[in-house]
Amino acid sequence: MFRCSLLLFLLSLLSVPSFGQQKPKKRFKLPPQLSEASGLYIAGPDSLWWHNDSGDGPMIYLTDGRGKLLRIDTLSHLQHIDWEDITSDDQGRIYIGDFGNNANARQNLKIYRYDLEAGTTDSLSFAYEDQKQFPPPPEWANFDMEAFFWMNDSLHLFSKNRLRRGNYQCKHYVLADDPGEQVARLQDSIYLRKRVITGAAISPDGKTMALVGYNFKMCLGFFPSSAASLFVFKNFNGSRFFEGEMERKSLSCFFATQYESVDFIDNNQVYVASEKTVIIPPRAKRRRVRKADKKESTLTAIRE
Which of 60, 69, 89, 165 has the fewest other C-beta atoms within 10 Å? Predict the structure, then answer.
């Protein structure tokens, strides 16, 4: 009887959905069409949705888990002023953030919602509750946005401060996921030393939040250098992410590589991706952000 119960338990574990029977690739190159990959949404093991930064058309790209281009959706009726991040809700609808705002002067900030099944789109327009001038005085110029994700009927946005002249404060805003006109509510902020934020993601179980940040400078006045970090937040209450425990993980420390996108593979791992440089192709790599719990560890041991 005991052996039978144990066998049924092991079979039930093997039936749990996962990121494929094999481990996701540790790193892979992106196709040349994604030279400025700025947003990533992982729908499944071989369904990774991407978009480029400003300069591209209104297109989203689907690759498999090894970076092979599978599909391009052209959303010709949408504007692509400065798309910066992509996420999805619990119904599988994709949200695209057209809110890049380097000059802190935009008053046409939008988030598009795309229903993959129906092929329909709608949008929400918004303004920040604490921005009164366009552009604001230099000391208040922290309204550029490159990172967001969906959670519990809300969109959570994280600002990108200015390189060199900024104060490295990242602000957390909240919007409802409803179409129409809204005001983004400022919920919190955090100081992230020598990093500006370019990507954000929440784990499937809602217990871990990740931000990608980088810095850039010219060494000796002519040699480009950058450093990038992954900020992992745990043990927070609700959406008070910055009140939880934070761990900082290094992604790069010298070569000029600009990390712009991140999403969770599962509750414990993420992919982070960087844009193309003169010598480095666009690429993604896997990073672990937390240890698996006992059930997940047992499942991994069985499969291996």
Answer: 165
